[in-house]
Amino acid sequence: VNQSQQDAVGIEAGEAGISIRAVVPVLFLNKKHVGSVEFGAPIDDALLQQIKTTINEEIAILVPGGEAFKFQAKTDDLALTESLYVFLRDMLQSNDVKIRRSQKNGQDRLTAYARLVDYSGQSVGILAVSKEIGPIIAAAQKSALYSAGIGLIALLSIQTFVYFLFVRLVDRPIT
């Protein structure tokens, strides 16, 4: 930062886990470079709770630990199963956001997973954002049933109209 006088902002993995770090140059009277200032904050439950209040979704940061994964921070009582480890290992290599559907306490949920990379582009963890979709599914089912009902009524109306039209224009003259 002192050499390039360019900001360095991003995620950093260290002894305490994943944290947010920013180093920016300091200019005296907006002209002369006199040094830099550094800020760092751990990504913990308190930070994620603040983010959750803004986006109203459950959030978790998962980090690899040996052959398994563990939560560094989370906003819910989420649990990890060994069956998820293979998927999470693949996510560490993927540039895509992947979405999985699951159930928790009888509720349908969608969880989006994305890898977290540090300054050097190395994967350091996984960001998981989860949303309850039960009400959305219920609304979609209600809408589908309503549409099917309207379609059935329209079909019966058209069929009745065609029947009476056929009887009046074809069947009566023939009779």
Task: Indicate the mean pLDDT.
Answer: 88
**N- to C-terminal distance:** 97 Å
Poorly predicted ranges: none
- Tally of alpha and pi helices: 3
Number of strands: 8
**Major sheet attributes:** 5 strands, antiparallel
Q: Can you characterise this structure?
A:
It is a single chain. By secondary structure, this protein is an alpha+beta fold. Helices cover 35% and strands 42% of the residues. The strands form 2 sheets. It has a 5-stranded antiparallel β-sheet with strand order 5-4-8-7-6. The protein has a 3-stranded antiparallel β-sheet with strand order 1-2-3, with no helix packed on it. β7 and β8 form a beta hairpin. It is elongated, with a radius of gyration of 29 Å.
Outline of the structure:
The protein is of the alpha+beta class. It contains three helices and eight strands. It starts with 7 loop residues before the first strand and ends with a helix.
What's the SSE blueprint?
Elements: E1 8-14, E2 17-28, E3 32-42, H1 45-55, E4 58-65, E5 68-74, H2 82-91, E6 98-104, E7 107-117, E8 123-132, H3 134-174
Antiparallel strand pairs: 1-2, 2-3, 4-5, 4-8, 6-7, 7-8
Descriptive tags:
alpha+beta; five-stranded antiparallel β-sheet; 3 helices; 8 strands
